[in-house]
């Protein structure tokens, strides 16, 4: 019988703790009181509008201060040449890429034609506007090379880029002509 009483005391003690816990912390429901939410928003409307206006003004000011940057882009792929190749008792023509996309990308990134292009355009070497950073990217599992120039003067960059691509093409045409064999 003593054990039975002890057991009852423990149960009563746990119930008392649970009741005290519920009395100390109010029970919150998972509901949103829209009226209170609207009251808080109306109370803080000056702060909300003020922060919004500051962000808008800073954004507008930054857009006028910053120089616009334009991108001139092209997609380059290795050209194909035809070479005769002996197969058994005959010669057949096979299509072959003039160079690998990685080698073409390396050539474009190094830009060995820069001073030649500036001379052709009669532009000053020292002028910072004439320093173009050419960015390249070989698309995975393809032979395509994406080439970009970012500039604040799009017409100047376009003119430079057009001549640059002509120089790359002429470089590979000359390379193909030198390596060509005539039958």
Automatic annotation (TrEMBL):
<dbReference type="GO" id="GO:0004713">
    <property type="term" value="F:protein tyrosine kinase activity"/>
</dbReference>
<protein>
    <submittedName>
        <fullName>Chain length determinant protein</fullName>
    </submittedName>
</protein>
<dbReference type="Pfam" id="PF02706">
    <property type="entry name" value="Wzz"/>
</dbReference>
<dbReference type="GO" id="GO:0005886">
    <property type="term" value="C:plasma membrane"/>
</dbReference>
<keyword id="KW-0472">Membrane</keyword>
<feature type="transmembrane region" description="Helical">
    <location>
        <begin position="47"/>
        <end position="66"/>
    </location>
</feature>
<dbReference type="InterPro" id="IPR050445">
    <property type="entry name" value="Bact_polysacc_biosynth/exp"/>
</dbReference>
<keyword id="KW-1003">Cell membrane</keyword>
<feature type="domain" description="Polysaccharide chain length determinant N-terminal">
    <location>
        <begin position="30"/>
        <end position="81"/>
    </location>
</feature>
<dbReference type="InterPro" id="IPR003856">
    <property type="entry name" value="LPS_length_determ_N"/>
</dbReference>
<keyword id="KW-1133">Transmembrane helix</keyword>
<keyword id="KW-0812">Transmembrane</keyword>
